[in-house]
Amino acid sequence: MTMQISSKKFDRAPSIRQLFPPKNPEESNGCVICSGQSFNHQCNTQETRTHQCYGSKPLLLKDVAPSPRNSISSVSNALEHTVPMHQLVDRSATSPISSHQVDYQLDIDHICSSEAPSSSFPAFRDKMPMSLRMYLPLYRAALKGDWEKANEFLNLHPGAENARISRGWETALHISAGARGTKFVEELVKRMETRDLEIQNKDKNTALCFAAASGVTKIAKLMVERNGNLPRIRGSEGVTPLYIATLLGQRDMVWYLYSVTDKEILKTEDYFSLLIAAISTDLYDFALHVLECRPQLATYHGLNGETALHVLAKKTSSFRSGTQLGIWERCIYPWIQVKLATEYKCQSNNSLSQAPSTFQDLLVNGLCRAVKYLVPGFETVQKKKILNSQALKLVQHLWELVESSDEMHYGDLIKSPLSRPLFIAAEFGIPEIVTELLYSYPDLLWKVDSQNRSLFHIAIMYRQEKIFNLIYNIGAHKDLITSYRDNNNHNILHLAGKLAPSDQLHVVSGAALQMQRELLWFKEVEKIIQPLLKEIKDSEGRTPQMLFTEEHKGLAKEGEKWLKNTASSCMLVSTLITTVMFAALFTVPGGNNNSNGYPIFMRTTSFKVFALSDALGLFSSVVSILMFLSILTSRYAQEDFLVSLPKRLSVGIATLFFSIITMLIAFGATFFIVLGHQLAWIVIPITLVACIPAILFAFLQFPLLVDTISCTYGAGVFAR
After folding, report:
1. What's the CA gap between 214 and 245, in Å, rounded?
2. Which of 32, 23, 105, 121 is nearest to 71 (CA)?
3. Is 442-551 a domain of CATH 2.10.70.10?
4. Does the structure show a pLDDT above 50 at 348?
């Protein structure tokens, strides 16, 4: 019987698109006419009128003709076409703005006693606007951070700082916070009342939610210092601004909002969402802190059954095995020392060690700072190593909590869904997680999934050689594990005969090299199984070899086509080089001596260089032609893709590259013989220019040559 894990299931992990949905003018519950054109339009339903006509923006008056004589009567007449605010606002709404929207209701006595309309109704010159078009200057200023224009607009239209100026019901503070306008926000907050900072848009997001998404900590500080209740107000989908910052990976913002958020409002569900979001955005320092505060979260899972370790097992780039490093970065990576903090508190960088306390620590820190500026790429590699170390520490901490959980005390870990991250890590090729889990609980080596496949079966299916290489460390146990068959009666060699996933198939370039890689996998798995397994048939009556041929028939055709096209193009270039080099040998630079027929400059060093490079270029181009010709006339059997065809391709490309270099050397020598004495100054520039074609060819074709040689002659896919 499968053991049930913790009953705590959470499903509230909304995405950014759910929290900030795109504005659709054709929503079923909305009225396009009233939301973008006119406020005098009458919607069909009471609910639509409440939320679309008056709930989205301040009540505006109907157009009033600019008449200086009867401005008061014009306003009074216009009031007859309006509806009091308190009759339309839904008092049951949970938005903080609904509680004080009533304050904007019309005060007829106040308006009639003045010579101009009340400041509660923003005026655009002599007209009372009826659409969002009036707020367009303020909207543009908020986007650009132009406070001067915004201030001018706000002075002309008092109260506009609280107006809903977009279809999404955002205010100028929402727009400027999302646009990272720090100065704009600072000045705008000074003009607003404390409670006005709590205004929510159509999706119930406050301006602090937009600031959290922007990642500018100073903007959030300006708002929170003015209104300390903002971090408590939940936005769209009921999430906190802290969750939004975490979901977008804003590290500094996350630590700040966490420090100002009242922990009493954070439920266990909130902590779980924060943990999952922090792992998804590589904020492992914050994830470790959350886990230290709530250790029980290690066994909690969403409705999809995934725990935090499930999510982490999919983060290939967070571990050393999946980090893409250049040649120089791989050289300096092992020499960079990283010390992680023992406790993770509210700070922007928790990955470095604590403040130095001894002279030795001061010396080491000083040397590290000097190296950071002197060694190119040091800081980038250091950040990657810190990330790798934090991710590995989080794996260890999560697994320790899983092993010590109450669920494990009353059940078998092998049968528990909590051990499923082992297969996820095998699928995504993260040996660090697999090694850690097997080291702590070796019996997981025998665990199989619902299809009766072990972790090595999974590794072969998804072509994860780093996981597969672990099979050589288990001794004779591999003979037992490799004999497992799945529900389709496929043994481990059948899985190697299946076509690899597309993302793993395109690790190497060219269909021919992809076919070679598939053959290497099949042959490698064939070495570790018992001979009897090679002849076992699956549920459809196919042996592993038959399945391989059937699955790779299309790839073999593509490989044949790719090789022929490559060979044809390269052979054309080789033929041209052969022709040029052959002709140059009989038309030597400087001419021949009429008395004996020998070249005039035969005894000079430059002529000897010319003759040698010309001969080598001729011979190498001829070899290249023969190699490419053999490729064109090959039979293209499956076995030929393993060694024969890649070998010919690598030799052909290498000799072609060599012939191009020798041709350019011969050209330089000829140029020096003819013009070297009269135009000596031009020899060096011409030589440098002559290097450009060789370098260009190297950049374009050298990666293909390296892939071919490494797979054919090198350690190959299964380097151990």
Report:
1. 8
2. 121
3. no
4. no
